[in-house]
Amino acid sequence: QVQLVESGGGLVQAGGSLRLSCAASGPTFAMGWFRQVPGKEREFVARISRTASSTYYSNSVKGRFTISRDNAKNTVCLEMNSMKPEDTAVYYCAATKRRLIVTTPPEYDDWGQGTQVTVSS
Predict the structure, then answer these.
(1) Are 17 and 83 in contact (CB under 8 A)?
(2) pLDDT digits (tens, 9 = 90+) for 7-32
(3) From CA 22, how far away is CA 85, in angstroms rounded?
C-alpha cells in the first residue's frame, strides 16, 4: 500500500562506511531493513519503531549498523560502518503494521526494490 524506494548502495572497501536511504510515499509504522544474496533466504538486519523509540538489530550487524528515521520526510536510513565482505548483498527496506518486533519477511507488508551493496576486501 505504501511505495518504498531504496538508494545509496554501491561499492565500498572492507572497513569503510555506507549510508542507505529508503523513501516512503507516505507515513509508515515500524520499518525494517533486510538483505539477500543469491541462493539464500532474505535475512533480517534492523528494525525501528514508528516513533524511533525502539530499535532492534541482528547479531551480525549490532554495534556496526545504525537505523534511523525522519518522519517529516517519510524516510528511513541505515548507516553501515566497519563493513565486511559478508555484508555484500541486495538491501531492502520494508514496512510493517505489526506493533511487536518482527524479523521475518512474511510479517512485513510493503517492500522496496532493493539496492546493491558490495564490500571488497
Answers:
(1) yes
(2) 999 999 999 999 999 999 999 999 99
(3) 22
Nearest CA-CA partner of 66 in 8, 111, 18: 18
Q: Name the strands in the sheet holding 4-7, side by side, starting at the edge strand that comes first in the sequence.
A: 4-7, 18-24, 75-80, 65-70
Whether the Cβ atoms of residue 46 and residue 78 lie closer than 8 Å to each other:
yes
> Which class for 87: exposed (0-12), middle (13-18), buried (19 or more C-beta within 10 A)?
buried
Handedness of CA 54, 16, 7, 108 (dihedral sign): negative
In our burial notation (b when 16+ CB lie closer than 10 A, e otherwise), range 24-58 reads beeebebbbbbbeeeeeebbbbbbbeeeeeeebbb
Work out the average pLDDT over 116-120: 98
Residue 8 is inside which H or E element, if any? none
What is the pLDDT, as a whole number, of residue 105? 98
Confidence tier at 115 by pLDDT (50, 70, 90): very high
End-to-end CA distance of the chain: 39
